[in-house]
Design a protein that fits this description.
Elements: E1 3-7, H1 12-23, E2 27-32, H2 35-49, E3 53-57, H3 63-74, E4 82-85, H4 100-128, E5 131-136, H5 146-166, E6 171-176, H6 185-189, H7 204-217, E7 221-222, H8 226-237, H9 240-247
Parallel strand pairs: 1-2, 1-4, 2-3, 4-5, 5-6, 6-7
């Protein structure tokens, strides 16, 4: 039976990955900051799907704790066949209104942890000749909406480069680039999404299912939803000056 490791596994897209992978018969290594929530998810997956689960309490803004997860990914005695780098969050304020320590922390979670964990997983997987990595990015990686877009742009381009490096090794890398998705993400970030029309929202279960199908096909960039496929196609050809102008209105803080 194969094993998958999911970061940010207790909520939103990460929780959906955990459930769908368990449903498909994968044992799970669940990574998040909150031990109580991890234990609840672990118990639920075991009871519902009969899989084995392991929990790792780790704050991925902390280098030592990220290192613990990397060590688990590289453990030859307990191979991980699928890594889902999902953990992430967004800051409410604009870059210059945030304390730099806050920006550094989110950078470490969104970029450095993806780099470190992908390195550990890809190395171990390449030695075994099989495996897959999913790095959860965003449609925001194609626009210019502050540091979140910049960090997700890193994730997308990094994953594309990693995929090329792994070609022919039996290991794949896929960047999942969802748009607005019904999770607790926006509320936790304090973002006002009330003006967004209903057709722009994605369902976490559906997008994860579509992503796993894309992983099976070896697809490098997975954009769920026809509306976002069209948006990304347009963003690839629009002048960047137009993209910059439109991006100013994408994320607005709550009143």
């Amino acid at each position: 039976m194969s094993t998958a490791l999911v970061t940010g596994a207790t909520a939103g897209i990460g929780l959906s990955f955990a459930h769908q992978l368990a449903e498909r018969g994968h044992d799970l290594v669940l990574v998040a900051r909150d031990r109580a929530r991890l234990e609840n998810v672990s118990d639920e997956l075991q009871a519902t799907y009969g899989v084995d689960t392991e929990i790792l309490v780790a704050d991925l803004s902390d280098r030592a704790e990220t290192g613990k997860v990397a060590e688990r990914l590289g453990d030859p005695a307990r191979p991980v066949d699928l890594l889902v780098n999902n953990a992430g969050y967004s800051l409410k304020k604009r870059f210059l209104d945030n304390d730099i320590s806050q920006e550094e922390a989110v950078f470490d979670v969104l970029c450095r942890a993806v780099l470190v964990l992908s390195h550990a997983a890809a190395g171990a997987m390449r030695r075994r000749g099989h495996g897959a990595i999913v790095n959860v990015s965003s449609v925001a990686s194609f626009i210019t909406s502050g540091t979140y877009s910049a960090e997700k742009s890193f994730v997308t381009v990094f994953t594309e480069g990693l995929s090329a490096e792994l070609a022919g090794s039996g290991v794949t890398a896929t960047a999942l680039c969802p748009g607005f998705t019904h999770t607790e993400f926006h509320d936790r970030a304090g973002l006002n999404m009330s003006s967004l029309p209903g057709f722009m929202w994605l369902d976490a279960k559906r997008l994860v299912r579509d992503c796993l199908d894309d992983v099976a096909k070896g697809k490098v960039v997975s954009v769920p939803g026809p509306q976002y496929k069209a948006i990304v196609a347009a963003l690839r050809v629009l002048p960047r000056s137009v993209v910059r102008k439109r991006a100013r209105t994408v994320h607005r803080p709550k009143a």
